[in-house]
Amino acid sequence: MKIAYYSNYVGKEFARKYCNGVKYAISGPLKMQGIARALLSVGHEVIIFSPGITTCNCKIAAFSEVEKYPEGNLVIHYCDILSFRHRGPVNDYRIHRMIAKVDTIEYFDAYLYYNPYLGAALNLPLFKNRLKILEYEDNVYNKYVVGAQNPFEGIRSTIYKYVVKRTNAAFIVCKGMFSRGEVKKCILTPGVINDDVTDAISLEEHHLTEGHKTRIILTGGTGYDKGSDVIIKALQYVQSPCSLDFYTNGNFFDQAKALVTSVPDRHEINIKGYMPHKDLMKVLSAEGDIFLSTTRSMGVEAQSAGFPFKIMEYAALGRPIISSELAKLDDDFNIRVNYYEGDSPLTLAKTIDDVIMNYEDRSRKAIELQKLVLGRYTIMGLGKQLKQFLNTIQK
Q1: For range 227-249, the mean pLDDT
Q2: Distance CA 356, CA 372 (A)
Q3: In the chain, N or C terminus with fewer CB closer than 10 Å?
Q4: Matching CATH topology for 2-192+378-393 and 195-376?
Q5: Which CATH fold would you assign to the domain 2-192+378-393?
Q6: Which residues in 204-287 belong to E strands, given as ranges?
Q7: Helices marked H in the chain — which ranges?
Q8: d(Cα 295, Cα 281) in Å, to the nearest integer?
Q9: CB-based contact 298:328 (threshold 8 Å)
Q10: Is 237 exposed, middle or buried (0-12, 13-18, 19+ CB in 10 A)?
């Protein structure tokens, strides 16, 4: 199939030209790239249409780039972009016009769209009698800002209902999404393990170094929704000496920063800042003892808020994972991850001490999990699953 893929993708050339020193979440583009490569690996043609991001503080003229991968060439088209805050709807309309124009020339068999937002909705009438697939990553009802709030929930809900009503199938990141049958044909796509990760992995069991602090690593955002304050509070109760490293290109939640001074002397906190993804995977593999995700549940039903992209990368690297319940997936996955309940610092602290005390057992389970995810969620592994799924829904 020839697939038009709407997403806020940031390609290599775009990043090099316009993103130097710009803060943006790289997990989204990594997931988009992985999905596109998985589709390429099983013979589909994928063209990404991107309205870019709104944090570059400049005007960007329309251009295209081609990224070359072992699975094939990935073409990305960008519209004229106003990369300023609150200009997203303008850019969505511009990319809509571009998709409409290109479709009259090339004709797409299917439309794939990242999250049920305005940009995705605008293009649905263009593909009225064609296959429409939603890539659902972030629940629109998540309470993701301080005070468990969701700004503009009414507008988001209206767009969501419009999109879902016109959607034929969905790639979803957790089992609770569409649990009421809103979209009946779904496949789990919680993450993609790319070359940066597979080049860094060790297949050997990891052991703690006697006399050294246990090194806990948390990657990604550090805002309210990511629970950075939960782990800093938890360190007050953790008995085993730990070194907590944050690798982030985001801004720390103010409450979390204020708590750093309350951490006992037996622990240390290191804020490492941004690191290129390939280098970060090597650091995690070489230095991490435990990988951590403290993303909040965000006030929605179990296993429906989303699935942290970093969890699948953590799993592939073969170290014990401690996570909030947000990262639950299926039984085979869940029995090999160390979860703590709610957003409780005390419960998290107990989980950390338990994993350290029983590290050899948890390390063996981490290697079991590594084997599991390397079979399912590499580019090739996911490609095979998507091929079967797409063949089924086209019948």
Answers
A1: 93
A2: 23
A3: C
A4: yes
A5: Rossmann fold (3.40.50)
A6: 214-219, 242-247, 268-271
A7: 12-18, 27-41, 88-106, 118-123, 153-165, 195-198, 228-234, 254-259, 277-287, 309-317, 331-334, 345-357, 359-376, 379-393
A8: 20
A9: no
A10: middle
What number of other Cβ atoms are within 10 A of residue 340's Cβ? 22
The architecture that CATH gives domain 195-376 is 3-Layer(aba) Sandwich (3.40)
- Are 297 and 305 contacting, i.e. CB atoms less than 8 angstroms apart? yes
Residues 263-290: pLDDT tens digits? Answer: 999 999 998 888 899 999 999 999 999 9
C-alpha span between 258 and 389 (Å, rounded)? 48
Residue with tokens 């944090």: 55
Dump the DSSP string for 308-344: -HHHHHHHHHT--EEEEGGG---HHHHTTSEEE-TT-
Task: Give the residue from 177, 192, 169, 204 showing the smallest Cα distance to 389.
Answer: 169
Average pLDDT score over the chain: 93
Query: Which one-letter amino acid corresponds to residue 116?
Result: P
The structure tokens listed for 144 are 């993701």
Question: Do residues 312 and 344 touch, judged by C-beta distance below 8 A?
Answer: no
Q: How far apart are CA 49 and CA 92, in angstroms?
A: 10
The whole-number pLDDT of residue 147 equals 67
